[in-house]
Amino acid sequence: MTPKGFLLLSGMLLCALFFEGYAFCSEVYFIDHQPVLFYKTINWWYDCPPGECDWFCGKSVTYTNGGNARIRYNEAKKTLRLKIEGGFADLLSLFKTCEQCYGSSYLQCTWQDEKYFGKSKAAIVSDLNGFSFAPIDSKQARILESMRKDILFVVEGRIGGLQNDGKIALHQTDNLLKKCSNVSEDQVTSYPITLKIINARSNGVIATFSARYKN
Fold it and tell me: Would you state the pLDDT for residue 65?
């Protein structure tokens, strides 16, 4: 099966489920805005026919995770921890895996809605176990807790290669199993990685994180 035909079949299997509402499909992967069975994309790439292995390179990837947010608030320290239950983007690699390579190293908050987070500072995210904000007052914490089932996390990036641990990388470093030859060296501009926290009820973004690149 050609990559295009594979992508179409995956989309047909998922689209009916997804468009019933995100709550019935807590995490969905998209390639070029079409829902796909992502693990099958990875399996195909491992054994791709000669001349077709670069087909997915540079294509946009979107990952959504809804209904799994958990709020942990420490009133004494005025700190709020926003966690995702059940794992997060397990088939994607947002951060480089080799220390000396140039690539995405962490996520930094670039914007947040003061209605939800006030004047708090978001901690740098070097893994995907959760997000921390401080100081946050109890009123804002209650607002976030009341809407936690409507919190949607969205990761966006472009395919840079395939790692040997079975994940598709949204970056390009020297130790990839399948390295995309047509990926621009200017990763920051051409292949940005963003993570948005969204109020799915209003479809409004409440915080945005962007990848930072370094050696």
Answer: 95
HSE of 82, CA atoms in CB hemisphere, 13 A: 29
Asked if residues 160 and 152 have their Cβ atoms less than 8 Å apart, the reply is: no
Q: Which of 63, 42, 84 is nearest to 193 (CA)?
A: 63
Question: Is-contact 94 155, C-beta < 8 A?
Answer: yes
Q: Quote the pLDDT of residue 144.
A: 96
Q: Mean pLDDT over residues 69-88, rounded?
A: 95
Residues facing residue 161 across a β-bridge: 169, 179
Instruction: Please tell me the least confidently modeled range out of 53-57, 74-78, 131-135.
Output: 53-57
Provide the pLDDT confidence category of residue 96 given band limits of 50, 70 and 90. confident
Closest C-alpha among 206, 213, 191, 209 to residue 144? 206
Whether the bond into 135 is cis, omega within 30 of 0: yes
Do residues 35 and 11 make contact, with C-beta atoms less than 8 angstroms apart? yes
